[in-house]
Amino acid sequence: MKQVGIEALLTLIIQFGFIWMTFKSIQAVHIERFFHQTPKGLSMLIVLISIAVGYTCASFFMNFFDSIRNLTFLIK
Q: Engineered SS bond to 54: which of 22, 44, 60, 65, CB 3.0-4.6 Å?
């Protein structure tokens, strides 16, 4: 049971890390300069896009490393 808790904690840390990296990357682009007037919901859009992209990237990497870990069962 303790291993499940550790994996859950690791999953949350990885997901928040990827969301944070995505958020910082999107902010570095300075999307607001493409508009004459900055839309009111632009900051919320940036947050939502960061969550979507960050979660997707984190899921990909976690599934990738989980698949590599499961390859050991093929060898045994």
A: 22
pTM: 0.86
Expressed as residue numbers, the domain containing 59 is: 1-75
What is the number of structural domains in the chain?
1
Q: Name every residue whose Cβ is closer than 8 Å to that of residue 2 and which is 6 or more positions away in sequence.
A: none
> What gap in Å lies between CA 39 and CA 47, rounded to an integer?
14
Task: Tell which residue, 10, 25, 22, 19, has the closest CA to residue 65.
Answer: 10
Q: Are 32 and 41 in contact (CB under 8 A)?
A: no
pLDDT tens digits along 11-56: 999 999 999 999 999 999 999 899 899 899 999 999 999 999 999 9
Q: Which two tokens stand for residue 63?
A: 């599934």
- Could you give the CA distance from residue 7 to residue 60 in angstroms, rounded to a whole number? 16
